[in-house]
Known about the structure:
Elements: H1 30-46, E1 55-56, H2 60-73, H3 78-92, E2 93-94, H4 99-108, H5 131-137, E3 144-146, E4 150-151, E5 155-160, H6 166-179, E6 194-198, H7 203-212, E7 221-224, H8 233-246, E8 250-254, H9 256-259, H10 268-285, E9 288-294, H11 315-319, E10 322-328, E11 333-341, E12 347-355, E13 362-366, E14 370-371, H12 376-391, E15 394-395, H13 396-405, H14 410-423, E16 426-430, E17 433-436, H15 437-443
Parallel strand pairs: 1-2, 5-9, 5-10, 6-7, 6-8, 8-9
Antiparallel strand pairs: 3-4, 10-11, 11-12, 12-13, 12-14, 15-17, 16-17
Amino acid sequence: xxxxxxxxxxxxxxxxxxxxxxxxxxxxxxxxxxxxxxxxxxxxxxxxxxxxxxxxxxxxxxxxxxxxxxxxxxxxxxxxxxxxxxxxxxxxxxxxxxxxxxxxxxxxxxxxxxxxxxxxxxxxxxxxxxxxxxxxxxxxxxxxxxxxxxxxxxxxxxxxxxxxxxxxxxxxxxxxxxxxxxxxxxxxxxxxxxxxxxxxxxxxxxxxxxxxxxxxxxxxxxxxxxxxxxxxxxxxxxxxxxxxxxxxxxxxxxxxxxxxxxxxxxxxxxxxxxxxxxxxxxxxxxxxxxxxxxxxxxxxxxxxxxxxxxxxxxxxxxxxxxxxxxxxxxxxxxxxxxxxxxxxxxxxxxxxxxxxxxxxxxxxxxxxxxxxxxxxxxxxxxxxxxxxxxxxxxxxxxxxxxxxxxxxxxxxxxxxxxxxxxxxxxxxxxxxxxxxxxxxxxxxxx
Length: 446
């Protein structure tokens, strides 16, 4: 074998006629394209790939991994696999898969022996549930941590506008559950160990908040800016090690924007993949998660379905077992609304925030939960929108009177006004008067 810089028998070195950097990559040979096409055909069809076989975003990693497995079974070594995958990536993937991911796929083949047709499977058999045995024991009651609000093995989301007090609310909840003290007129079923990860605030800010809330020294265990990201295998492993080490019943992650890393929050597949990690940790470690998230930007033409208050993909709301939405109702009060609650009826809390100066204790108090019968908030919100559509700018007193005649209490009307205002559906046009935002937009001259 000879190559550039090998020595000729006459004493001179072999040289490139054209350096590899000066010529484009060769096209993949037909046999390789055929093999790749077979390896990815089912994936491509399932994801509506282009007629020409282009592998689109969402199936690129799976397609190249499948192809790499075939190459390994054919006897290729990781360096060869990487070179072939790079060419396949350049010619078939749109957009291109990141270079690091391609090399990672190739390196991952090292754990499989070359030339073996089928790599050993590590898949576990499916374990079916025994309904007959379950019936013998009787249906157990819900294992509540905070009755009506947070149950063991829940994955909960607390969403709301920036600066509304989500972090303070969650931190105070952590202290209450850790100590077993009453929280907003609700008594926890038992004290539990809590891990609280604040991935937004620095150490000093986090310590200051928990000190002002009167947190004990050892529970909840608090940490800030630890790089916990659900799209990073190393970070997920680190989180799992902490959960297994301390055995908490509740883990609070503040916030989704930070712990989801560079996941596209509007991509259901990517968001769903992050929740699969949470499901795995929930099931293997028997732990409850509470995630803090932001609200969707106000849009007067947007649907007023409360489930759509949460920012990003609807996968956030569909994957979580309970979703809470925080909205301000003025004078230091906040409504905490359950827009989703599996296993029980939805409730609402009115929470009051008080502090003794900027350095003094912070106290959150409440009037206890209010059950939302038959979606009273949703019904009242629809009625209010219809009323303003028909009557235009309306005084609060007139709204209350008409709402009462339609069967809605003043308290429910007040909640409906806050709810629609959060969505940007209605606006306070002048003192005591409300109107539809979309109507006001149409009235603005071009």
